[in-house]
Amino acid sequence: MALLRLPDELLLFVTSYLVLQRDLNFFAQTNARLYNLLNTYLYRYDVGQNGSSSLLWAAKHGQEATAKKSIAEGADVHIRSQLQWTPISWAAFNGHETAVELLLATVGIDPESRTSDGKTPLSLAAWNGHDEIVKLLLTTKGINPDSPTSREETPLCLAAYRGHEDVVERLLATAGVDPSARTLTGETPLSLAAGNGQERVVKLLLDLESIDPNVKNSRGETPICWAAGNGHEANQGMVMDEQHYR
């Protein structure tokens, strides 16, 4: 192919007339020489013309090499999706530990970036039970371990509701975490766990002397009410036993 016998400078000149990224991608995949020549150009094009979308994609899918190359070519680590998710939001939510580590090591990263509903990377990792990422974030400077969402749900509330025992244990052992934090409607980690049938988490929380098993939400419902109303008899029994002994 005569085109491929052209010097690099002319190939790059031809490339400059390709305005769509898909055309650039197709051209770069023609052969190994073009790929090696245009790979960096593609990343720079993405940063300049597509708002660093490659980094957002790489963080979401755990593609560390792509994320690293994108950052090296100047990608904006604070780029946001439609719902205000940043690359570190996606990496934490989907459990991509190496991507989270890479992003945390990037100068200027905000480890407390919030989604449209106020969730931080720690909240997202806690929600999905990614204990190693929770551990990593808790050791990061500037992290608030009790940071609430727009509904006043702390990472502990989210982990308790979902039944992530390891994450709950880690958060309970972290300074600054309130085991009796309340959501916007007055739910506590105990009532959320009891109402959602998370027996192991209920037991963990009831083992704490500071936990009040009779605490009521804004509608006057106790954890027993939540457990009974949702058909979780085991949780109802545990809370009732705790009430008896306190």
UniProtKB/TrEMBL annotation:
The record's annotation in SUPFAM superfamilies points to:
Ankyrin repeat
GO BP: any one term: protein K6-linked ubiquitination
UniProt keywords (A-Z) are: ANK repeat, Repeat
* Domain of life, per lineage: Eukaryota
Cross-referenced InterPro entries? Ankyrin_rpt, Ankyrin_rpt-contain_sf
Query: What Gene3D superfamilies does this protein's entry cite?
Result: Ankyrin repeat-containing domain
Q: Which PROSITE patterns does the entry link to?
A: ANK_REP_REGION, ANK_REPEAT
Repeats (ANK): which ranges? 50-82, 117-138, 151-184, 185-207
PANTHER family membership: ANKYRIN REPEAT DOMAIN-CONTAINING PROTEIN 39-RELATED (PTHR24171), BRCA1-ASSOCIATED RING DOMAIN PROTEIN 1 (PTHR24171:SF8)
Protein name as annotated = F-box domain-containing protein
Q: Taxonomy-wise, where does this protein's organism fall, top ranks first?
A: Eukaryota, Fungi, Dikarya, Ascomycota, Pezizomycotina
